[in-house]
Amino acid sequence: MGSALARLVRGRARTDHLTDGEREVLAAAERELDGDSYAVLLAVAGGEHRRLPDLIAALSDAQRRSCVPHLKAWRTRLREEWGYQARPRRRALVIAGAGCHTGAAAAAQWLGHTDLSLVEPADTPCLLAVLGDRPAHWQGDVAHRVAGRRQADSEWGWGHYTLVEALVLRSGCAVPTGGAFVQEWVRNRSWPSQPQHRPGAPDGTPYSLLERLRADPFLDALAPLMFEVEGVGALLTEGTDSWPKALAALAAEGRLERSTLLDGCLSRLLRGGRPAELRGFLSVLNGLAPTDDEYAARATTLLRLLPDAPSTVAAHAQERLTALDAAGRLDDERLAQASRAVLFRTEKKLVRAQLSWLDAAARRDRGRAGAVVLAAADALGHEDTALQERALNLIARHLKHAGDAVLPELASAAEALSPTLRPRAAELLGVEPPDDGAAGPWEDLLPPVPEPVPLAPPLATAAEVAEEVGAVMAAVRAAEFRPATAPGVDAAAFERALDGLVRHAHRDREGLVRALEPVIRDRPWNGRHAWWGDPGPGHLHYMAAVLCGEDAPVAPSASGAHAVPHPHGRNLTPFGEVLAVRLLEAAWRVLNDPPPFLLATPTTADGRIDPAELVARLAEYERAGAVPGPCDLDQALLRLDVSAAGPGVLAAAGRLGGEAGRRVRAWLEAGGPSLPEPVRDARPTHRLRGYGSPVVRVRLSTEAVALPCVLGPAFQGLLGRYIADGKRDETSWNLGVRLWPSVLPVHRELVALRLQPTFAATGDEDLRGGAALLPALAEAGGAAGEAVHLGLAHTLGARHPEDRTAAVDALLVLAARGDLDAARLGRDVAETVAAGTVKPNRLLESLREAVRAGAPATVFAVLAAALPGMLAIREPVRGLPDLLALAAECAGTCGARGPVDGVAQAAARGGGGRLVKEARRLRDVLGAPATA
């Protein structure tokens, strides 16, 4: 049957849909294999995976092994083919390789290979058919090896699971206990691929999760391991049934050990993890409904959850400990331990609950007053002034029952209080108030002013160039699917490598090609995927491919225009246009008119070029008879640090000949471009791609930049008129975004202007990584004007902590350099809060971080300008009392005095609301006599 089937496959084989590389593999197989073996390759070519079990069954082990080298070669050719058309061939290739490898280790390695990761559960029958003629121990070995090659991953499923499960059941081997298998077992039981229905059920009702687990042969082995595998917790609340209810029922029936489940949940919660992960285990714990006796036996674990667990987990532990204490099952030492763990947490709800617990404990038993007030003293150092005051009130309420022995320790703890509360604490404890003016005028502790770092010398040899290009490509590939978190490639590394390619193509192109060949061989160039979206550091691959003959560069336009036409897509940002024309110009010139080096290579790591160095480079061009590339010269001009140009540089520039010399001289004499004043508005705009309801954003628009001389079309697009539409670029997923500041290193306002929709989206969209460029802009050159400050205002209220941290870093650097206009930033903050882009609670976190870094005076200056606008908003601003409290704390720390508009009016309102209370406190601090 095998030969007849092979003849049938050969008779209907088609190869016109294959790539050139696949046809080469097929031709080699036809020369080297017999007819039956060759039919396996033809079935792969046709994507006929269902025919493979019969074809392979007809082969001997020797014939199967003869197919393996050709299947491996095919796998290599399919590596870069991810289109839908290649999927049937990929599926067939997986099945063919599994059946043709005769060793268990080799078969498992084939199935687990990264290039064949798209195994589909529907292929399990075919895979079982090609593996089914092997001995049981062989199949079990394959199952364990395949399971062992996979790491647990909570984000997506594992196509091999159904195959491994079937092999385990068929072979009777031990159940795999690796993390991936456990995780996929849970996912499969939550969402069975082939749900079984109750026989005779009129509505076709499938078995419930509880019923499936009762009959599960893997339950006893895998259920205890659920608590040890990352990613399982998030699955426990998925599916059509409830794992918590099912596990509780199995424990009640005695099928699972209840204590094992309880200890497993608590130990997993103690280990920590993502909120979604822990919610699943917390749901299981709640489903088990532990008794007071069970919790009392595990009180130590509950206490260990309090300091670091997510707030929902800590709140659960705190609630159970409070109940145990109310039942008289917790001693004073554990009460103090719980307080020490909770009272320094940032979550106000937890701190308030802890103080309420302490208050209730002292009310129940006056003999615990001493322990209670000492425990509450830990909250006197909390960063929130309102919580400090709450703790101080608790201490005042129970101090008379605590005795005098606690006073020295309380006085020591009171030193951490906000300056606004210290006089009251001193009066309560009977001590002298501290003399805060003895230290003299306050000075913020700001970071050192960053100095430009010189770029490393040019790469000396072709081997160094190849090594640097390979390192850039490897870093880009590592960041390909996680650019928001991966280190990526900085502009300095990109520019050195690009200059190295140009420089050594001029010196010895053949030697450079020899050095680059291993780099290209390791990752072949596929030009069809080039230039979709902004070019980035990875497009050095294109340069290397051009030099090695893998791609043909595009010639400049016949008219001599600066722009070079793009050979592929044009989904580019204005920064991407500039980077693209530079790369395309350099790629054409290295083959047709190689320059000795690039003019635009920076002299400092941030992208700037020293004017004296550019003049020297142009002089070297003149001596060599080289003509500057238009795009290369345009970029060099935009990087020119004109502030460093002295009279000697201007004189040297005047001695340069040609058009390039005249342009550089005009640029230096004019002092660079003249930036227009932006126009500001705040109106509704749509989010990214127009999805979602409109949001109000503060936006800046400008006319075109006035240039000392004309630049090419791509640069004119970057420097032309800018009309803000509010929609952000997805910069966090743009691998070229790290190069943007280096395009305009002495004109950071222009970079910030183009990035303002992205900065705004960090607050009113779920954009992560949108503030990553702010620290670089803080260190860049040029004026820090409206665009930089508005971007800073937006990102101080970013949704994600890493973006807020980047904004705080930028704030501190700007302050250290003397570039921060605190009044402007404060007004921007108030306007963005009024628009709804910035949430005050996120802004509060950022400003607190700046205070903790040692800059309370800077923060107060920002708040002093922001509070009048916020207090003038008609609708209640949630979080405004906290900002008033922070302003009072900063003012008390740095000794600020004098009125802030709107504060006295807010303090004069009736009622005892928190806003009025905090406004009065700030008014009193600002009105107190200065201590300096």
From TrEMBL:
According to the entry, every stretch annotated as the DUF7824 domain falls at 598-645
The family database entries (InterPro entries) matched by this protein are listed as: DUF7824
Domain of life, per the record? Bacteria
| Pfam name, any one | DUF7824
Protein's recorded name: DUF7824 domain-containing protein
Give the organism, scientific name: Streptomyces pini
